[in-house]
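Hello,

Our lab assistant flagged a job as stuck in the queue for most of the afternoon. It eventually completed. Since we weren't sure the result was trustworthy after the delay, we are filing this so someone can double-check. Below is the sequence as submitted and the structure that was eventually returned. Let us know if re-running is recommended.
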Amino acid sequence: MSKVKISVTFMLLAVTFCVCLIVSNLMEIKTVDLGPLTITAGIVVFPISYILNDCIVEVYGFNKARLVIWLGFGMNMLVSLLLQLGVWLPGADSWTGQEAMATVFGAVPRIFAASFIAFLCGSMVNAYVMSRMKIASGGRRFSLRAIVSSLWGEGVDSVIFFPIAFAGVLSWNEIGLLIVTQTFLKTFYEILILRSPCVPLNCCATMRAAMSPTLRACHTNGGKSMKYKWIWFDLDDTLIDFHTNSHMALRVIYDECGLERFFRSPDEWTDTYESHNLTLWERYSRAEITQDFLRLDRFATPLRPHWSGDEDSLKDFSRQLDPLYLTRLAEQTALIEGACEILAYLRAHAYNIGVLSNGFKDVQHRKLSNTGLDRFVDLMVLSDDIGINKPDPRLYLHAMQQAAATDPSLHVMIGDNRDTDIAGALAAGWRPILLDAGADALKVDGKVTITPRLDLLKELF
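-- returned structure --
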């Protein structure tokens, strides 16, 4: 039977969570006037349990948070039973506090029953909202997510708890006021704690953000040891729909530069360019031509049969087209289906995400930023950085050095090109995954895993 390792930090968070929950339920018996407002004494402690719940979701995931919630439920029930046993036991002749004890702890079963139901619903809602917002935000903006999720959780908790706990004891107007004031006061209290630089609990709130990429990847994923630490993606036609974006950029410069002088239609222009450009990129990947030659010739050769001027003027015009094309290309934002989904999933599960591309430095960073993918990516390594292209394993070695993880078995490469992405990953000792839209299912072919869609990769991680 496999053993699940529990860290000391996780144990301390879980124990503190349970203690805060139990103490807040005991204090909830007492109502307190705060100016014109009536609140319960439990407000002093209860929001801390929500902050701890957020920290556990943030660092260890929803499944571990759910485990702690059920643990807190069980500990609450145990305390309630033991207190009732204490009230029931006959007192000694010298004992004079039976009436007071019965008055205070006699209300505990009702308070605890209300708390059990409210706590389960509120904590689960809090953990779920926190988890979903974490995925949507790519693991960023912890404080905002903690506050919004707590507002939902505290709201659900209050709506359930106060009618059950105080119906017949307080008026419905007072109960309604308690629901509203407690929800917002608890949330405001949490904001103060999260923003305080001197409260120890703030360390928990910033724990995940403070962890280095390598340390984050050492956490467990759903209770299973994570075999890989870095998941690398090719950029064009793996995450970004380069074909669609390039096609749109070419049509824009067709109109802007008056290319109707040379081609009968935008389609003729794009077809001619893309056919020649594909051949150049294959040669560039094999280091047969330089980047400067590629960037000039991909425009000059399609234009040459239609050009009436001399060669120098053709080259000058081609050099004008190149930066304009790259600018328009970076403005396009079409993505491969499932790109954001898989990146958010990997980010939420504490994997480090890298981009490894043969693309040009002056445009790849702009493309990553303009498409919004930069919020998921920890590191981008480009062939331009060292003048070596995929599939040369030296580029993969450079990426490992930049990631401070030089064991090849810790790395996965996901790309759409067998000859560059996959061949280079195999040569470097990385696990290769080929994105092939023509594949019928997720499958393994020799050492290469093949997937027709990015979202199917969730099954592997």
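-- support follow-up --
The delay was a queue issue, not a problem with the job. The result is valid. The longest strand covers residues 352-357. Residues 90 and 98 are 9 Å apart (CA to CA).
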